[in-house]
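Example for tutorial group B:
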């Protein structure tokens, strides 16, 4: 139906077009027959060719209609692919019609023929209609195929719809999943390939709250644009008054108007810039906040299928892109667009014909931009996706750095990250090619337009249709218009890149959770009855795999119910359903008879609490972790909960008590301490339903007994659900439910189930067999990580203080001596030059007859300014050596400005004297002017040197931000060798490390940073050379263009000769073409080169991070570190690929312009040069301050990113405590901190834009005023002045480009310095040495080891610890939590270095072994295994490149993992998901065990290695471990003391010291600490305080230790139990 309607419209349009065109042609023709017209055809007076264009339109639409009718499936797609060609053909028709109008305008009679004018108009209208109908026909493909529509189908629509106010601009992209596929629901939203304008419109819709501020900003924008639109008109009037009228009267009036407009425009420009920045800084915060809160609403399945790195990439990289789109590109785009509109209005008033020539070129530029924009947007989305993949690898690796280091896999992770970057680079090359083609076509269009205007304008002047003065004004407008169009073209890439990023952000903002987090019910009372009613369930990521199948059971209030079964049977899935993390596929989960999803979210999670096996703590205080999600908790409640969890005592012993920060993921606490805080966090809520998942597994015996007692006391008040593998710990539960393969196979009490002899009976028998053979090896939690950097030794500080004093005294003496020598020399030379150059021999006569036009006394007087400055500063420093240099430093900017005023005055004096030939050639006077300038520069240098002495006295020295101006002006001529230096010696916190490492100063010059960035491009020297060749070629050609433009205008206006006009026009056209080609090549080569730099920089940073010690990752949050790899490297990339490219081009062009200008008039050039230092000082001051602000903003943003990363990575914990809103508020508060800095940035930007505009426009007024004087006095020709003014306008464009990119440069430099801090950082504890012996026995010895974590150097963790691990023996470490057991493991793994003593492996210190060798011989099986988001195969063989499949299968078989792996969808190639999320806890544990066993290590460390396994799996794995014990040195760390009684040696550690060691029998006989710990565990069982506590990833021993049968010392009782 749709195709029929469209084809009917096409047919109707074809007939109508043919009829109307023919009628208009016949009535307008002087001949009545086509034959006569063709015989006497004349293009200058015949319209037959215009009639012929109907055949083009006829052929296009008829051919397309037949094609679609003939092939309705593929036809529309083929039409769509030809949309761009059709659009171009229609534009050619329109251009031809307008050209015909210009031709006919030369003949008055034809020009006023209404039939001809109607024919021209209809030709243009019908061409537009053809484009619209073609586009409509192409869109019919949407009804046939999903893949319909070419990339170019929207050009015609875009040209037409730009006039309409589409209501769809505010629509989102709902209905799209984050993967980019359409969701099969009925939700509204924009089409997948929505127009870029809709995205920009939606972004602006978020600024509605700032409508007033935006309105004021737009008022100033329009005011600035209107003023600037009048300026070229008055410039033309001024030149006209000078060149043609030669009258000061005709010159003065437009000059006054010009000056006033310049001043108002500058003020408006500054106000607009500041308000724009503030408005869109608020937009940035709003957008980040919306995105984060949208993420907080998503279901848990969303976080299962989207990696944390990919999500945080949206909050960091993509939101930064969007921010740049609005605050930078949008600012420049709007300013340029409004100016362009004003210019068009003025140009049309001057000459509609020339304006028509300009307008004819615009649609071609628009089509090229549209084609490029769509393609570039597509590429940008692909690049963002590729970058997110790289960020995912980085985040995963950094967050699991201990695992990476323990397997010595840093190099392979670096290679993996680099391979992702290379994938992105392939897309970068496509971007570079597209950019190159776009720049070429854009430059060709702009310069061809300029040539066409000059050529046709010359024709109009020579034929008397236009005055020469009007042409001059028009050319100036055209140059300004070219600047606006170039600005629009230059920001279009950034706009499209930002739009691509915004669309990805909107995908997440608009996404509706597939499973809402809660309903609206919140009853006043809750009994706590839980019922699973015929529940079937499969995870969203694996919809074909049923996890639960028709499961039904009930949890009664006041009773303990246990879930038991093999790993992967569905126990943890039941917990997730009860927590409302997922929705069941069938059936219901009821709480007091209501489905859990009907309860209000916060209410549900206040009544259902989970105590997990792997507790997640947040990087905040202990107090805030315990009261997490509760705003109204009193301190008494917190202390009560901590006391019940036996945490109060250790908390009060921390440095700041309850206000002590626990570090990222609780890294500052031991495993047992973390577990107790997590228990307190659950108990404080007094929930009705309590889920216990190995809640006390990480506690020592004493703590476990106390916590167990507290839990027993509150069981009667709760519905308790326990999940366990340790079946002996759940025998006292009121009801035991046995689940196997997702089905309830049995339930009842322990006695009932044992009597039935089903699966439960078999599992118990398997555990009993394991216990009888004594095959349990216990394994404790990890201890707190250390972090940070070592402080400065006190002796170093004391010794350096006296040295600093001596050096300072010596340095001040030298500087003051130089100052005194310079003052004397300056006074003597200035006086001698003045005396010899004056016409009078005495100062008194000179004073009496002073004349500023011919007297140099005032120049001699400037010596007093310099003497006063240096003498005053010297006395001040000598008088106060401590504060004096700092005060001098703060006045550096003022001193620089005073010296610049002296130089300007001297040069102005030179210009005044140049009017008098005699004085002009006086060598003494010239010497005095030159010396005044040189001595002013010398004064700036000496002042700066004197200010630098502050660095030797105070850390805060160096003064204000302005102290480097003078240095910068002088040092710009030097090639400093320090440019390639880094910032070694600086810690990531920004403080100097007090070692002897070299590096740049902390406040290093920005040029050094840029120079270092460029030094990374040495491998691309050839490419860079080619790029610079094309850069110079384009700049040279563009430098000649204004010269020949002036010559062409001179030939028209003054000579009125076609001969004088044609020659420069031919040269101009050739230069324009060569320049355009060079610009295209330069842009592409630069993009490729700096894309490679971006890859190189990211790779260097990542590999540097891989080299850092573990303490570095303890003290720097994962969010902070990944922020450097995402946000900061993106900033650096923008600095190089965009800003430096534009900066270099503008700089080289400016140099060429200066050379030409100097050749035309050295006097006018001198006026230009005099203004440059002021602009340079302003830019430098702004740059230094803005760089400082940028670093602060980056730090503040990193804090916000840290909150986001921490929250998203622990989303299950956040959801289980219903704390999404508070986390959103926390993130928002960090954003508000950043916004305070954004406001300072906006104010600084506003002041800079105002001062910059004032300087530039004042310079233009001065040049015109002085140039007019030179022409009127006969010192310069009018034609030369025209060329000079054109050069000055082009120079202004270059300076404006330099100024506009300076902000980006400073922002990029600030980010680069932060990146270089990490790249240059040397690890304080190297990861390994060089020894790698062929054989290793595995003897480990701790020899008088003392140790404290770097972040807590005053707290000794280990104190003179000595013990030995013998090969072939099992040694157990036991002791309370926090006693130092895990610290021993960290030292053995070489994560840290001991403060005293040594850790020896076969008699050699562990740090002497080669890194990879050490970790191939020492393997750790952890209690909380970390798996990576890759296949099972790659996880087992992690860090091993040469492992065969047989070895992998053998290791998996030993770990009892082979059977479940082969049952997965893709076997060993199945992906395990982020952090192993696609596997159950037991499955993860078995894969981790296989990963250790495959290495056949000599030293094996077991840390609850079998805690998460079911009975059958544990027995098999335990047997495998026992079989290999004889081949290894085995270290076991345990809290469950009863499980280590068969160890060959038991070492008891308390408060960091070895208090006892021996066998179990020996230690029990001594009745020391070990005896007391065993008695405490036995007592806990004897009092019947046993609450089974099951794992999600079940830990080894049960909730309150081993069952009574295991704990009692009576062998007969044990035998009876078993």
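The residue assignment follows.
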């Amino acid at each position: 139906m749709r195709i029929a309607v469209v084809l009917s419209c096409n047919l109707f349009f074809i007939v109508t077009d043919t009829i109307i065109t023919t009628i208009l042609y016949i009535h307008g023709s002087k001949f009545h027959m086509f034959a006569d017209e063709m015989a006497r055809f004349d293009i200058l007076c015949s319209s037959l060719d215009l009639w012929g264009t109907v055949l083009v339109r006829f052929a296009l639409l008829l051919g397309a209609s037949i094609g679609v009718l003939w092939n309705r499936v593929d036809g529309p797609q083929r039409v769509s692919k030809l949309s761009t060609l059709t659009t171009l053909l229609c534009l050619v028709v329109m251009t031809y019609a307008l050209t015909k109008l210009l031709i006919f305008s030369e003949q008055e009679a034809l020009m006023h023929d209404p039939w001809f004018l109607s024919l021209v108009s209809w030709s243009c209208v019908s061409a537009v209609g053809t484009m619209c109908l073609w586009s409509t026909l192409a869109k019919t493909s949407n009804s046939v195929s999903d893949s319909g529509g070419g990339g170019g189908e929207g050009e015609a629509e875009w040209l037409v719809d730009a006039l309409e106010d589409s209501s769809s601009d505010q629509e989102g992209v709902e209905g799209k999943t984050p993967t980019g596929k359409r969701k099969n629901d009925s939700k509204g939203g924009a089409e997948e390939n929505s127009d870029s304008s809709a995205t920009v419109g939606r972004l602006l819709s978020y600024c509605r709250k700032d409508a007033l501020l935006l309105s004021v900003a737009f008022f100033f924008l329009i005011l600035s644009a209107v003023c600037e639109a009048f300026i070229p008109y008055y410039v033309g009037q001024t030149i006209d008054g000078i060149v043609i009228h030669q009258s000061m009267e005709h010159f003065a009036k437009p000059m006054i108007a010009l000056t006033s407009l310049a001043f108002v425009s500058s003020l408006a420009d500054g106000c607009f810039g500041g308000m724009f920045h503030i408005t869109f800084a608020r937009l940035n915060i709003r957008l980040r906040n919306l995105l984060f809160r949208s993420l907080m609403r998503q279901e848990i399945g969303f976080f299962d299928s989207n990696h944390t790195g990919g999500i945080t990439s949206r909050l960091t990289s993509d939101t930064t892109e969007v921010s740049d789109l609005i605050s930078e590109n949008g600012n420049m785009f709007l300013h340029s667009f409004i100016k362009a509109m004003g210019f068009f209005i003025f140009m049309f008033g001057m000459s509609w014909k020339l304006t028509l020539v300009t307008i004819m070129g615009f649609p071609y530029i628009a089509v090229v931009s549209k084609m490029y924009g769509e393609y570039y947007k597509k590429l940008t989305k692909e690049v963002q996706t590729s970058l997110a993949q790289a960020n995912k690898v980085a985040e995963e690796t950094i967050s699991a750095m201990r695992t990476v280091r323990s397997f010595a896999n840093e190099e392979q992770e670096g290679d993996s990250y680099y391979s992702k970057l290379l994938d992105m680079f392939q897309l970068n090359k496509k971007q570079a090619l597209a950019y190159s083609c776009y720049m070429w076509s854009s430059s060709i269009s702009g310069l061809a337009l300029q040539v066409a205007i000059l050529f046709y304008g010359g024709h109009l002047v020579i034929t008397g249709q236009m005055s020469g003065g009007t042409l001059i004004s028009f050319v100036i407008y055209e140059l300004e218009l070219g600047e606006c169009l170039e600005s629009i073209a230059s920001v279009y890439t950034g706009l499209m890149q930002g739009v691509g990023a915004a669309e990805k952000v909107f995908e997440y903002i608009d996404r509706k959770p597939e499973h809402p987090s809660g309903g609206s019910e919140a009853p006043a009372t809750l009994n706590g009855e839980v019922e699973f009613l015929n529940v079937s369930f499969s995870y969203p990521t694996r919809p074909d795999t049923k996890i639960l199948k028709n499961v039904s059971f009930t949890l009664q209030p006041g009773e303990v119910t246990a879930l038991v079964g093999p790993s992967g049977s569905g126990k943890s899935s039941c917990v997730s359903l009860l927590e409302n993390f997922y929705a069941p596929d069938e059936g219901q989960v009821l709480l007091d008879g209501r489905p859990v999803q009907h309860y209000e979210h916060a209410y549900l999670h206040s009544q259902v609490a989970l105590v997990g096996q792997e507790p997640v703590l947040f990087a905040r205080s202990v107090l805030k972790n315990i009261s997490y999600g509760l705003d109204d908790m009193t301190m008494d409640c917190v202390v009560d909960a901590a006391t019940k969890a036996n945490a109060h005592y250790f908390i009060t012993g921390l440095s700041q008590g309850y206000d002590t920060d626990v570090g990222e993921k609780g890294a500052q606490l031991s495993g047992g301490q973390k577990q107790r805080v997590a228990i307190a966090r659950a108990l404080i809520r007094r929930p009705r339903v309590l889920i216990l998942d190995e809640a006390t597994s990480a506690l020592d015996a004493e703590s476990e007994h106390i916590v167990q007692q507290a839990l027993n006391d509150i069981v009667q008040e709760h519905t308790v659900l326990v999940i366990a593998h340790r079946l002996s710990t759940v025998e006292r539960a009121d009801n035991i439910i046995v689940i196997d393969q997702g089905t309830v196979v049995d339930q009842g009490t322990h006695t009932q189930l044992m009597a039935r002899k089903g699966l439960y009976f078999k599992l118990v028998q398997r555990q009993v067999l394991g216990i009888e053979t004594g095959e349990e090896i216990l394994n404790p939690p990890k201890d707190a990580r250390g972090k940070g950097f070592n402080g400065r030794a006190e002796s170093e500080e004391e010794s350096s203080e006296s040295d600093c004093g001596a050096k300072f005294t010596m340095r001040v003496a030298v500087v003051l001596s130089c100052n005194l020598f310079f003052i004397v020399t300056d006074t003597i030379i200035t006086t001698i030059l003045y005396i010899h150059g004056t016409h009078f021999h005495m100062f008194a006569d000179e004073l009496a007859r002073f004349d500023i036009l011919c007297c140099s006394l005032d120049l001699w007087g400037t010596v007093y300014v310099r003497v006063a400055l240096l003498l005053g500063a010297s006395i001040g420093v000598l008088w106060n050596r401590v504060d004096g240099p700092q005060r001098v430093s703060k006045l550096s900017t003022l001193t620089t400005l005073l010296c610049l005023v002296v130089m300007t005055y001297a040069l102005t004096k030179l210009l005044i004297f140049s009017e008098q030939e005699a004085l002009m050639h006086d060598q003494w006077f010239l010497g005095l002017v030159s010396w005044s300038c040189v001595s002013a520069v010398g004064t700036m240098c000496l002042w700066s040197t004197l200010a630098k002495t502050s660095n030797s006295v105070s850390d805060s020295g160096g003064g204000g931000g302005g102290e480097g101006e003078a240095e910068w002006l002088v040092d710009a001529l030097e090639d400093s060798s320090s440019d390639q230096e880094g910032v070694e010696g600086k810690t990531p916190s920004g403080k100097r490390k007090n070692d002897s490492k070299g590096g740049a100063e902390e406040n290093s010059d920005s040029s050094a940073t840029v120079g270092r960035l460029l030094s990374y491009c040495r491998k691309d020297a050839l490419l860079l050379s080619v790029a610079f060749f094309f850069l110079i070629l384009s700049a040279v050609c563009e430098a000649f263009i204004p010269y020949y433009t002036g010559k062409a205008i001179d030939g028209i206006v003054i000579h009125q000769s076609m001969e004088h006009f044609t020659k420069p026009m031919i040269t101009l056209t050739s230069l324009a073409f060569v320049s355009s080609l060079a610009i295209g090549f330069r842009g592409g080569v630069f993009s490729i080169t700096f894309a490679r730099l971006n890859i190189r920089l990211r790779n260097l940073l990542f590999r540097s991070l891989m080299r850092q010690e573990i303490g570095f990752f303890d003290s720097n949050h994962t969010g902070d570190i990944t922020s450097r790899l995402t946000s900061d490297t993106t900033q650096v990339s923008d600095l190089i690929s965009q800003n430096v490219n534009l900066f270099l081009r503008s700089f080289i062009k400016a140099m060429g312009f200066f050379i030409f200008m100097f050749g035309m008039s050295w006097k006018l050039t001198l006026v230009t040069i005099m203004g440059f230092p002021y602009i340079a000082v302003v830019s430098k001051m702004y740059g230094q301050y803005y760089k400082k602000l940028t670093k602060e903003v980056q730090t503040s943003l990193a804090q916000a990113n840290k909150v986001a990363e921490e929250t998203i990575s622990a989303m299950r914990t956040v959801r289980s405590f219903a704390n999404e809103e508070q986390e959103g508020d926390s993130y928002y508060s960090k954003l508000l901190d950043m916004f305070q800095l954004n406001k300072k940035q906006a104010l600084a930007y506003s002041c800079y834009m105002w001062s910059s505009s004032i300087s530039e426009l004042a310079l233009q007024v001065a040049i015109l005023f002085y140039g007019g004087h030179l022409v009127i006095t006969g010192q310069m020709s009018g034609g030369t002045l025209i060329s000079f003014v054109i050069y000055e306008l082009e120079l202004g464009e270059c300076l404006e480009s330099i100024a506009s990119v300076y902000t980006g440069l400073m922002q990029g430099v600030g980010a680069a310095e932060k990146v270089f801090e990490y790249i240059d950082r040397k690890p304080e504890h190297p990861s390994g040495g060089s020894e790698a012996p062929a054989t290793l026995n595995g003897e480990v010895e701790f020899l008088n080891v003392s140790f404290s974590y770097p972040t807590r150097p005053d707290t000794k963790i280990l104190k003179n610890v000595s013990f030995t691990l013998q090969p072939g023996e099992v040694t157990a470490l036991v002791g309370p939590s926090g006693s130092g057991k895990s610290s021993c493991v960290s030292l053995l793994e070489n994560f840290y270095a001991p403060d005293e003593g040594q850790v020896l492996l076969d008699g050699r210190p562990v740090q002497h072994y080669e890194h990879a060798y050490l970790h191939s011989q020492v393997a750790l099986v952890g209690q909380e295994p970390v798996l990576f988001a890759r296949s099972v195969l790659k996880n087992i063989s992690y860090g091993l490149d040469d492992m065969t499949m047989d070895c992998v299968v053998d290791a998996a078989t030993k770990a009892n993992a082979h059977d479940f792996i082969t049952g997965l969808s893709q076997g060993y190639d199945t992906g395990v998901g982020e952090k192993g999320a696609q596997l159950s806890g037991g499955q993860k544990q078995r894969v981790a065990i296989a990963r250790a066993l495959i290495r056949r290590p000599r030293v094996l460390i077991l840390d609850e290695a079998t805690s998460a396994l079911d009975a059958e799996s544990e027995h098999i794995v335990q047997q495998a471990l026992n079989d290999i014990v004889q081949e290894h040195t085995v270290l076991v760390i345990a809290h469950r003391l009863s499980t280590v009684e068969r160890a060959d040696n038991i070492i008891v550690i308390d408060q960091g010291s070895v208090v006892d060691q021996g066998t179990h029998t020996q230690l029990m006989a001594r009745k020391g600490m070990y005896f007391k710990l065993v008695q405490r565990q036995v007592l806990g069982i004897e009092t019947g305080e046993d609450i089974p506590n099951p794992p999600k990833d079940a830990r080894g021993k049960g909730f309150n230790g081993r069952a009574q049968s295991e704990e009692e010392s009576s062998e007969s009782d044990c035998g009876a139990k078993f």
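Confidence is low (pLDDT under 50) at residues 142-194, 770-808, 951-1004, 1580-1618. Compare this with the pattern of hydrophobic and polar residues in the output above.
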